[in-house]
């Protein structure tokens, strides 16, 4: 397409899918009776529309004029404006993802090719979200194995970490070395309504030694996100990889986490922090320090897809998070905003293909029926 394509308008809509029965997420003390999605559409004077989803875009309304009339492909310029907005207001990063979708549609290329084109497929790990009894969790692990996943992340939030270890032991006994296992301790942040604290370094050390005994691939968020000294000491004391950063909000905080030697695995989420444009910087930082960069993706399928394009474009990852814990967290629930859910193939891989942009279509009918704003 010749000539400059200009942004003509930005449209934001909010949608709420009722969840009956509710989803009891392990990291949330309240049952989830609905699931929200915010859809961002960037319209152009050429008739093309970039689309994405992720954070709720709180505080973005009133800033549209900072983008309208601008060259749609001036993504680094737009990123700096978004970074200013996220400082003063909420997290507007889905707009960066929508601009990448648009850039792909303008150029006729999938986003992963525009970013660097490393590999059009990404290995996925199954990321569970519930707390199951040990035998049931072991059954679930066998099902994930049957679906081709190379790895499974389980949750530690049963109140007593010894009960969590028992669940992990049951899984390891069932699947042996056929699945890599990760443990999410979820100590980095809390929901708005939760007043209880995070583990201490000594708590994390005790748990981490058990995880080493059970051959766990990484220990995620063992401490509060701001306890960089604790993370560094834990990482020095243990061989198990230490992972974190899923809700760390500023990119300079990743610089400090890396410079101080706090983490082995860096996990920002492009739909929540920094967008694709910001996180490609973090991916390069991680590679320069021989660390693993593999994003958190617990938003919806559009967010998973955006992070998949990012790593497929620029990074070498062992596997990317694929939130999936049926029946409570099914693909139909997670991806209700999409015309087709994002799936993995029989080898546990996400195939991104050659469709321009992020390569998905919206479920317009369901979005119309679930619109709340
Ligand atoms: Mg996590």
From TrEMBL:
Domain Mandelate racemase/muconate lactonizing enzyme C-terminal intervals: 134-241
Keywords, alphabetical: Magnesium, Metal-binding
SMART domains xref list: MR_MLE
InterPro entries noted in UniProt: Enolase-like_C_sf, Enolase-like_N, Enolase_C-like, Mandelate_racemase_C, Mandelate_racemase_N_dom, RHMD-like
GO molecular function: hydro-lyase activity; magnesium ion binding
Isomerase among keywords: no
PANTHER family (alphabetical): ENOLASE SUPERFAMILY, MANDELATE RACEMASE, MITOCHONDRIAL ENOLASE SUPERFAMILY MEMBER 1
Identification of the protein by name: Mandelate racemase/muconate lactonizing enzyme family protein
Biological source species: Lichenibacterium ramalinae
Species lineage: Bacteria, Pseudomonadati, Pseudomonadota, Alphaproteobacteria, Hyphomicrobiales
């Amino acid at each position: 397409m010749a000539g400059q394509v200009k942004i003509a308008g930005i449209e934001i809509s909010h949608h709420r899918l009722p969840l009956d029965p509710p989803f009891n997420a392990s990291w949330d003390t309240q049952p989830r009776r609905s699931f929200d999605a915010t859809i961002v559409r960037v319209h152009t004077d050429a008739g093309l529309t970039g689309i994405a989803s992720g954070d709720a875009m709180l505080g973005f309304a009133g800033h549209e004029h900072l983008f309208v009339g601008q060259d749609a492909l001036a993504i680094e310029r737009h990123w700096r404006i978004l970074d200013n907005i996220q400082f003063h207001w909420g997290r507007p990063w889905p707009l960066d993802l929508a601009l990448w979708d648009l850039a792909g549609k303008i150029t006729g290329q999938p986003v992963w090719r525009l970013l660097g084109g490393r590999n059009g497929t990404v290995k996925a790990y199954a990321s569970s979200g519930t707390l199951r009894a040990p035998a049931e969790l072991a059954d679930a692990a066998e099902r994930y194995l049957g679906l081709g996943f190379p790895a499974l992340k389980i949750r530690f939030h049963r109140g007593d970490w010894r009960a969590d270890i028992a669940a992990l032991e049951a899984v390891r006994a069932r699947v042996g070395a056929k699945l890599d296992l990760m443990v999410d301790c979820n100590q980095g942040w809390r929901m708005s309504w939760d007043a209880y604290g995070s583990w201490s370094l000594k708590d994390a050390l005790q748990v981490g030694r058990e995880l080493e005994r059970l051959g766990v691939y990484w220990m995620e968020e063992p401490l509060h996100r701001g306890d960089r000294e604790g993370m560094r000491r834990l990482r020095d004391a243990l061989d198990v990889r230490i992972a974190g950063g899923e809700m760390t909000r500023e990119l300079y905080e990743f610089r400090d986490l890396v410079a101080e030697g706090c983490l082995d695995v860096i996990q920002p989420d492009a739909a929540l922090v920094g967008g694709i444009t910001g996180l490609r910087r973090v991916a390069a930082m991680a590679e320069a320090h021989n660390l693993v960069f593999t994003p958190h993706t617990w938003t919806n399928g559009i967010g998973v897809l955006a992070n998949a394009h990012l790593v497929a474009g620029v990074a070498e990852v062992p596997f990317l998070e694929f939130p999936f814990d049926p029946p409570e967290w099914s693909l139909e629930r997670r991806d209700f905003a999409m015309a087709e859910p994002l799936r993995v193939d029989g080898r546990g891989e996400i195939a991104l293909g050659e469709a321009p942009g992020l390569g998905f279509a919206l479920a317009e009918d369901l979005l119309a029926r679930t619109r709340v704003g």
